[in-house]
Amino acid sequence: MKIKEILDAIGKMESGEVNMVVSAIKLRRNQLHFTDAQSFKVGDSVSFTGRRGAMLKGVVDKVKVKYLLIRTTTGQRWNVPGSHLTKIKETVSV
């Protein structure tokens, strides 16, 4: 099914049906966050976009269920969803 068809179908749904679609989307998003977070391990060098668009680099300190605790090069600790992280090859010193 194409996105346009899905959006058209959602536009024709009743309230209960829309609620079911929203629940399914939330469940899928949670599954993706879990899978993304579990693809990293402690010590991995990563980069991500912080608040206000700043590109930050750091090291994974802790892998949680859907989020990772990242220690940045500036010494800050960020709680970041796995889907917002990118593994980088360069070694990051924190």
Tell me what the structure shows.
There is one protein chain. With 94 residues, this protein is of the alpha+beta class. The chain has one domain: SH3 type barrels (Roll), CATH 2.30.30. It is built from two helices and five strands, in the order ααβββββ. The chain has helices spanning 3-11, 15-38; strands spanning 45-49, 55-63, 67-72, 77-81, 86-87. The chain is elongated, with a radius of gyration of 18 Å.
The fraction of residues in strands falls at 25-35%
Anisotropy-based shape: elongated
Radius of gyration from the alpha-carbon trace, in angstroms: 18 Å
Strand order of the largest sheet: 4-3-2-1-5
Secondary-structure topology with pairs:
Elements lengths: L2 H9 L3 H24 L6 E5 L5 E9 L3 E6 L4 E5 L4 E2 L7
Antiparallel strand pairs: 1-2, 1-5, 2-3, 3-4
Q: How would you sum up this structure in a few lines?
A:
With 94 residues, the chain is α+β, with helices and mostly antiparallel strands. It has two helices and five strands, in the order ααβββββ.
